UniProtKB/TrEMBL annotation:
The keyword rRNA processing does not apply. It comes from Streptomyces lanatus. It is an enzyme of class 3 (hydrolase). It catalyses: Endohydrolysis of (1->4)-beta-D-xylosidic linkages in xylans. Belongs to the glycosyl hydrolase 10 (cellulase F) family. Residues 33-343 form the GH10 domain. Keywords: Carbohydrate metabolism, Glycosidase, Hydrolase, Polysaccharide degradation, Signal, Xylan degradation. This is Beta-xylanase.
Length: 451
């Protein structure tokens, strides 16, 4: 299994080569934390991430498998993805994600069956009678839930049914079928897979407010009517510094109704660019959300909506904002990652955050004999006017070509130094260089040193 670590500056250039060699035999200056999924399991919680199927190789796939015990397809199971044309289905990405999860001992959270968004045009543009619409909804649920029967742990059956003031959102479903579409959808899902836990999922319902109270009243009445409802999903698309103080209390009141609660889509966005102060605040925010879940036994766990900033919906949806996930764009764990680990009882072996520049190595694509790698040199609370990055390949890999750096390889040891135009790494900034290489057998990620 690959590991990804970075070392702080302070290594003298003269000893870099020796360091690289030494690092290979003594791979880290501190022991790595156990993966989040193991820490979470020890607390009886699930730690999940949303994923994009096409990215599940290389470093992205390695981290997904190593750190998380549950996967949610970010888009692959939405109606518009699986049935873009009526009667013509595309299950490829959904199947791939389920297969990946099963291969790595991970749960899958199905997302999502009945929603107002990301529906196919043929559905939203149709002129349906209530009977036709109800039939379409029930058939869709029967087909999709039935396809994965017995294999998915949970389903977000109904997504985002409420307005901010607690009234029902006027959607295709509500307008056509009335509020009872929710009970009908849950009942259809239970019939299609009696073993899946069935959830209603929404955003801005993390704290006690009008919207979460409407959700609470709905769940209460569904329970009273005997409608199958097992849990509520609190999406938790949060803003830096704005974790609701009533989150634990809110989770507890749902638990007291006799349903599970899951944090289903956690991300914490900030105005870009990120800096050390913002990343420190974000770490505190992540920890607050984790602690709210950990404090309530019926809180099943936490899923992040993408684990890396390179796979987050935030920048395209909230212009100017981003850096919302626990790993940066180059797969280096951010303070938020360590905060999650600490909340789960790990993190004791992690060095405290200090002002530093770091280098992080990742494999961005890989084919039968070749691969493309990338190294990002990032600074926070420090800056560089030139840099060198070194590592020792562990499995006979050879660099064939590099860009945005000049690289030399001697035996297994590689040293790359900045090009004439990218030696400067400002405080809060980063520089990336890339290379192609050859490999055979395996292509493990090396430990990199920044000098
Ligand atoms: C988002 C995806 O992450 C994006 O890739 C897509 O373009 C839009 O939808 N609430 C939800 C998720 O329930 O399905 C949404 O996912 C984010 C908000």
């Amino acid at each position: 299994m690959r590991t990804l670590r970075s070392l702080r500056t302070g290594l003298s250039l003269a000893v870099l080569g020796t360091c690289v060699a030494a690092l290979f035999t003594a791979p880290a200056v501190y022991a790595a934390d156990p993966p989040l999924r193991d820490l979470a399991a020890a607390k009886g919680k699930v730690m999940g991430t949303a994923v994009t199927g096409s990215k599940l190789t290389g470093t992205y796939g390695d981290i997904t498998a190593r750190e998380f015990s549950a996967l949610t397809p970010g888009n692959a199971m939405k109606w518009g993805s699986v049935e873009p044309t009526r009667g013509s289905f595309n299950w490829a990405e959904a199947d791939q994600i389920v297969a990946f999860a099963e291969a790595h001992g991970q749960q899958v959270r199905g997302h999502t069956l009945v929603w107002h968004s990301q529906n196919p045009g043929w559905l939203t543009n149709g002129n349906w009678t209530p009977a036709e619409l109800g039939g379409l909804m029930n058939d869709h649920i029967a087909l999709e839930v039935g396809r994965y029967k017995g294999r998915l742990a949970t389903w977000d059956v109904v997504n985002e049914p409420f307005n901010e003031d607690g009234t029902y959102r006027q959607t295709l479903w509500y307008n056509g079928l009335g509020a009872d579409y929710i009970a009908q959808a849950l009942t259809a899902a239970r019939t299609a897979d009696p073993s899946a836990k069935l959830y209603i999922n929404d955003y801005n319902v993390e704290g006690v407010n009008a919207k979460s109270t409407a959700l609470y009243n709905l769940v209460k009445s569904l329970k009273e009517r005997g409608v199958p409802i097992d849990g509520v999903g609190l999406q938790a698309h949060l803003i830096l510094g704005q974790v609701p103080s009533s989150m634990q209390q809110n989770i507890q009141r749902f638990a007291d109704l006799g349903v599970d609660v899951a944090i289903t889509e956690l991300d914490i966005r900030m105005q870009l660019p990120s800096d050390r102060a913002k990343l420190t605040q974000q770490a505190a925010d992540y920890k607050a959300v984790m602690n709210a879940c950990l404090a309530v036994s019926r809180c099943a766990g936490v899923t992040v909506w993408g684990f890396t900033d390179s796979d987050s919906w935030i920048p395209s949806t909230f212009p100017g904002q981003g850096a919302a996930t626990p790993y940066d764009e180059n797969y280096a764990p951010k303070p938020a990652y360590h905060a999650i680990a600490e909340s789960l009882g790990g993190g004791t072996t992690t060095p405290p955050p200090t002002d530093a520049c770091t280098a992080a190595y990742s494999v961005t694509s890989e084919w039968n004999t070749g691969f493309t790698g990338q190294v990002r040199v990032s600074c926070s609370g420090a800056a560089l006017s030139s840099w060198k990055v070194g590592w020792t390949f562990g499995a006979g890999q050879r660099i064939t070509q590099a860009w945005n750096a000049s690289c030399t390889q001697s035996g297994a040891a590689v040293i790359c130094s900045n090009a004439s135009y990218n030696g400067t790494v400002p405080d809060g900034g980063s520089v990336t260089f890339g290379f192609n290489g050859s490999w055979s057998g395996s292509n493990p990620v090396p430990v990199v040193a920044l000098g």
